[in-house]
Amino acid sequence: MSKKKDEKEFDETDILVNKGKKNDKVIPVKLTGNSRFKFRCHPKVRCFTACCSNVNIALPPYDLLRLRTRLGLAADEFIKQYGEIQILDKTLFPVVTLKMRNDEKKSCPFVTPQGCTVYEDRPNICRYYPVGMATLRKVDAETGRDEFYFMTKEDHCKGFEEDKEWTIAEWRVDQGADFYDEMNRGWMEILIKKKSHGQGKPFPEIKNEMFFKMSFDTDYFRAFVFNSTFLEIYDIPAERIEKVRTDDTELLRLSYEWLRAVLFAEETLTFKEGAIEKRKDQVDKTMRKVYGQKEKGSIGELD
Question: DSSP string of 128-168?
Fold first, then answer.
């Protein structure tokens, strides 16, 4: 049966907030921040760390930043050692997922029998578990997305037998998920935007590379901001420029704004007065060197 235009559909970005296991049982109830549930995970629960294997863990930029900073690794070093690059089916954008150990359980590289060795900086997917977050959006609609929560249960999980009761909002605060959500929201909006701009239609490879480098490698983007003509073109307040020099969270926010501007021509950043004309003149001079001294406006035209 075909969908009507006013119906809603799940958004693919669910992968970024829900651990993917084949034996997950999604409880078909749409939950809110006030919904209550009983759950607790601790070293004495019988299934401790069992949920940390054979799982697909996507790493949005802030998740990757936290992990690599903790380990003292550059972005490319972390990806080489702990990451895998996957292409999201519906956006065709490259994303990073955590590389599992090559053992029978396909276990997380950061988990030991005593627990998670990077717990304070664990990915947001791990913070949410056993809660999942999904997005409903109207087909072909730019706005009107509706975020909601759901519960997943694995057969082995005994955490639901614990007496501790939470609302989902309380769980998010306790797990430190709110700031992760805030930091990754701008990036996820780029994924959703790409999906709505032509599902299955790839960007040129150079744009995919730009998206990947500028969002996942903060060192690369910072060098781009301060070692190119970026600050000559865009009107960035002085106080924000100083923050960007040392604050990776502010740098990530700026990268999301810049990517939306260059990928989708959104007015997320303000041009300096005269910057566009100056840029055109620079391009014109470059083209003249290539095509010869033609009149302005005829550069590149065939003889």
Answer: HTTEEEEEEEETT-SS--EEEEEEEE-TT--GGGS--EEEH
